[in-house]
Request: fold
Amino acid sequence: MELDFVTLDNKEYLIIDEIRHNDINYLYLVNNKNSKDFVIRKEKGDLLVGLDNEEEFNDVMQSFINKNVEEIR
Reply:
């Protein structure tokens, strides 16, 4: 299995999931050296940017949970 990584702030993050929600691609990332360092970024053109607000975070976290409910249990 091939793993995909991105670099943010000089840290390597593993892409653990990618979900398209409301016509936006969201990447769910975990730091390769610290599994407690979990972030969500959205694609904006060629850039990965942070979420706009808590409402967007809650919405895309719910999408992640819904998609992965069996693995979470």
Q: What stands out?
A: Strands lie at 5-8, 11-21, 24-31, 38-44, 47-49.
